[in-house]
Predict the structure.
Amino acid sequence: MKRTVHPDGVSLTLGITLFYLGLVVLLPLSLTILKSLQPGPELFWQIFTSPRVLAAFQVSFFSALTAAMINGVLGFLTAWVLVRYPLPGKKILDALVDLPFALPTAVAGITLAALYSPTGWIGSLLARIGIPVAYTPSGIVLALTFIGLPFVVRTVQPVLQAVDGGLEEAAASLGAGRWQTFWRVTLPTLIPAVLTGFTMAFARGLGEYGSVIFIAGNRPFVSEIVPLLIITHLEQYDVIGATALAMIMLAVSFLLLLLINLMQAWMSRRYPV
Amino acid sequence: MSAVLDWSRYSSPVTQDPLWVRRLLSGMVVLFLMLFLVLPLIFIGVQAFGKGIHVYWSALSNPDSLAAIRLTLLTALLVVPVNLVFGVCAAWAIARKEFRGKNLLITLIDLPFAVSPVISGLIFVLLFGAQGWLATWLNDWQIKIIFAVPGIVLATLFVTLPFVAKELIPIMQARGRQEEEAARVLGASGWQTFWHVTLPGIRWGLLYGVILCNARAMGEFGAVSVVSGHIRGLTNTMPLHVETLYNEYQGAAAFAVASLLVALALVTLVCKVWMERQQGEVKVEKQGKE
């Protein structure tokens, strides 16, 4: 029989972990869910189907989706170039990819808003060719693209580094062109990583607040996101309305978290390191 | 991790993209990153210092700015150590013992990352706010949590809870238990084992987790914005103060305070690069010994 020696303190540390997690995360979250059930399903439905709320969900959903798709493409390209091509200053560019993670969202928010406003450095150029960005829905997409970029780059990069060069060589030696090899051999192995990064960026984009509100213009029915509407409800002392919206967002977040976990399990099966 | 295969030196001609493809894609990516990441940084610098160092300095030494800086430091000082202890405990328990529901526990630790910052603030309003579960009790005892410093600390605790644990769990799982078990068999106490065997092995991950946790604690906006009440000089943290200044059309002052947060972000990035290099060296050393 094999005996394992447990270092002391496993039950103590596990106890601390569960207690603290319960107190700071699980208790407040479950009480929130409980609170949202109080008004009953009818009122809940009424809040959810009010035109302003539906519009906000539409804005949040489609801007997060668009931004995640842009990130899917640009993030993939960035990872590809950073891994495969020699580039001057590559290490600095590579480190900078994490900037959106490290930069406080409010700072990102005011910077993007000022940079892309009709009088800003980039905004004035875009205004001249008739593309307003700040204070329109495309401003939201811009902010969410900024916030979500590292997710795709950082999930694709390690997989791309680990891709077996032999496979590509085999494809080439069997007569495949470079494009064919990419399309049939390299890309399929990278798809799970791209999808995982895409979903993470999407999930983050749905709940994002700080970087968006400065650039969005926040017009109801046009560029008002759900997190802002929650705060608006709270400021009008409509706790029930705020909680109902939060409940729906929580449900979506949990589903996405589950999806991301499943995808990561899929990835670790695809690329056993 | 980054040293698996350096593709840029991988020069087998059959697997190399044509020169024009390499140039086109490199050009696109460099232009994109310059416009998207570098230009905003330059812009912040110009906005903050554009009206002269004097304006910059007076924006920072304004009493409200100083109060915001102090509150942000206080919050981080309270929050980071607590989540550090939690992270070490969680990683220790998860890496050292098999138990049912372990994966569920790891998912639950990640939960604050999945929740919108606004909701992270809202849950504490529902607990401690004027219409919250504990409202009457708090009223009786004259305790103020929402629109006061305790609420800010609580929301920040929630938001930054996963950082240290998330860095440490994979490192400790990958290290295995053999070294600790050997120490135990040789008579070390649990505490001695942790201090002399475990800690040296996880120190870079630990430090990086702390730095990330600190960056988020100082930079958190959404959650803190819900619970703070935006009282100037009292419950405005640095990010909230940036918002206040910006909305009052004090752009230069807003970007001056923001520049401090940018410096924090850049330090965080430099630490990350440095930490990865340290970890790489540890790996190479180990491989050399084997």
Q: What stands out?
A: Chain B touches chain A through 109 residues (CB under 8 Å).
